[in-house]
Design brief:
The chain is an all-beta fold and about 200 residues long. It has no helices and 13 strands.
């Protein structure tokens, strides 16, 4: 992730904040009980997508411009999974979600929300059933990475600590959303093995 800073020395007096741009995701506080579903259905198991404090923060100079570089870990601290499923390729001709006229390089992505079928308060794969799907954004194929990204996943800003004034900001950032680390083994229902593995063409 790269954010440019304008003034010399500005980075020493600013904070980096991350804003998740996940308008489609049903995020709730991890400590909240699963909300009841309408019509007597199983309660919804929702994720709680959060950003860990940034690491590997450093400044690089390139062609007279200061670049602020850092590592960012985004995780799920909720009782439900973050499952984002692109629409099928057969329907992609109707779903040119990035509007570039090529229906094969992008697909609408939907968040899959599961109901707590066994009543244990956490997601259990193979037991809890699909409750609903919500539009989550546009999934676009990145040729240079040879895999799919969910567009507009996050945004980063540099702020003055005292005034909160924004010094610089990134464009909305896209990611391949997958299991790369175990976020917090102490969370109820935290799986011991990853399920959403490598980012691939599929």
């Amino acid at each position: 992730m790269t954010v440019t800073t304008g003034r010399r020395g500005a980075a020493s007096a600013i904070l980096v904040s991350a804003t998740l741009a996940l308008t489609g995701l049903g995020v709730i506080a991890a400590s909240s009980p699963p909300p009841a579903a309408a019509g007597g259905a199983d309660p919804a198991l929702l994720p709680d997508v959060i950003v860990r404090p940034l690491t590997e923060i450093r400044i690089q100079k390139r062609a007279g411009i200061k670049l602020l570089r850092f590592a960012s870990i985004i995780g799920n601290a909720g009782v439900g999974v973050v499952e984002l499923k692109p629409d099928s390729p057969a329907r992609s001709a109707q779903n040119d979600c990035d509007g570039d006229g090529d229906p094969l390089n992008d697909r609408k992505a939907f968040q899959r929300i599961f109901g707590d079928s066994d009543g244990d308060g956490v997601f259990t794969r193979g037991t809890d059933t699909l409750l609903e799907k919500r539009f989550a954004g546009c999934s676009v194929f990145h040729v240079e990475h040879d895999h799919w990204h969910l567009e507009e996943f996050a945004r980063y800003q540099l702020e003055k600590p005292r005034s909160g004034r924004i010094v610089a900001s990134s464009e909305k950032v896209s990611f391949c959303v997958r299991d790369s680390i175990r976020f917090d083994a102490a969370l109820p229902g935290s799986p011991s093995m990853f399920h959403y593995g490598a980012c691939t063409q599929d």
